[in-house]
Amino acid sequence: MLEHKDYISSLNKARKKRNQNIDPRYLLILLAAVIVVGIIVLGVKAAMKEPASGRASGNRPVQEAGAATASDAQPASEPSPEEEAARKEAEEIQKTIDSYSNLGIVQVSGYLNIRETPSTDGKIIGKLSGDGACEILQTEGDWSHITSGGVDGYISNQYLISGDEAREKAKELVKLRATVTTDNLNIRQAPELDPSNVVGQALMGERYVVLGQQDGWIQIEEGYISADYAEVSYSLNEGRKLDMKAMAINQYDNLVISKVNNYLNVREEPKSDGKIIGKMTSKAAGEVLETLDGWYKIKSGPIIGYISADPQYTATGQEAKDIAMQTATLRAVINTDVLNVRTEPTTDAKIWTQIVKDERYPVVAQLDGWVEIELDSVDEEDGTTTDKAYISTRDNNVEVRYALNEAIKFSPAEVAANNAASRRSQIVNYALQFVGNPYVWGGTSLTKGADCSGFTMSVLSKFGVSLPHYSGSQAKMGKAVTSGNMRPGDLIFYAGSGGQVNHVAMYIGNGQIVHAASRKSGIKISTWNYRSPVAIRNVLGD
């Protein structure tokens, strides 16, 4: 047993000694092998993923040396001039909208009245055109207290949108506009300082869409205005103050007023026998373009010509302004060729006549979207007026403003050799002596006052023609003629809404009439179809 234990002990010692004598080179070889295996394993794992410079699923080529990788970000390209302009415009539009704390947009066709108090009876102090903007200060029932274009007043909520709806709508309404910075600025037909090319006036604070800019001028839809007296910026259209009497006068740089009792001749040349091309009725206004020896070259309405500079007949300077302040009245100026007149302020009402462009009608009352005008003081037998005349202000067909009378085109009919023509010319020239005299219902005085049939009756009685004192009865006298065959001295008749004749005028040639029009207008000259005629009669018997 002892021998066996000794054997085992000696064997263990021998094994231990052998282990202690292993060659170190074998250990280095073993370590290198482990490292190689580790590298191979890592390579296999990397191959299972697509490196940025490797191949995807065997289909993508290896990135060439020096080529840009996906991580090499390219700088953004510069915006084009068009893109930059659009960006700036969008910023200006948003800035304009953001300038309103509580934006309101008017939704009407035409314009909406701005009133001094929240009532339909409130004094009208301004107007807001369709798509015009305002700052809503407070809402009071059916009315909103607003400020717009320097006008502080009230408008009906019925025609107003606000909040997000207004802000969204405004995006399409902001435009490049010129805001007038002077009291009175001429609008010209062409971009040049020529007295004869003035076509209108722009007032302080009014805004006009800019169509173009060139050499100190701004082109707008109405013509051209000086860039020295307007600021151009992106803006919304806003309200305008109601034209006051002073504004009617401010449109004239060098005002002249006719002081005659009836009319003042406007002549083609500065001489007493110059051809008559127009007439200025009493207190009519014009612009002095040039002062000559005893004459003024003037522009009044559509007429450019010469009038006497005698202070007995004309006023200028402060005297003219004082007269103008006393005589300027609120008028409806027609801007379209033909406009319907209705018996009630609604498009459902009957059209009973039509009126034409360039006439100025006295205003009786202003309603939202409508104006009641004095068309004529009708010649009813009992003196009552049954018809009211309403015209729509939609589509800017009518401009309501204080205005002065201006010259009208008129050339006397040439006196022909035959006696009939001579007689007609004498009748017309006699009738024209009384232009400017008053209208008086039931009157027959050519100087103190007459109504329409009293005027024609009294004029023709001077020449041996007897007529009844009622337009309806006069319309049955003589014989009918057509508009193409009418001659000076013929009578033209107009009817009320019921179709009955209630007004008469005398044709004077050149498409014009003379008539005792109304209490406000007196005896005046008008276009023969200033409203729709219903009959023309030759009562002279020739």
From TrEMBL:
Q: Which Gene3D superfamilies match?
A: endopeptidase domain like (from Nostoc punctiforme) (3.90.1720.10), SH3 Domains (2.30.30.40)
Swiss-Prot/TrEMBL keywords = Hydrolase, Protease, Thiol protease
Q: Where is the SH3b domain?
A: 101-164
Annotated segments matching region Disordered:
52-91
Composition bias (Low complexity) maps to 70-79
Q: Which family, according to the similarity comment?
A: Belongs to the peptidase C40 family.
Which named protein is this? SH3 domain-containing protein
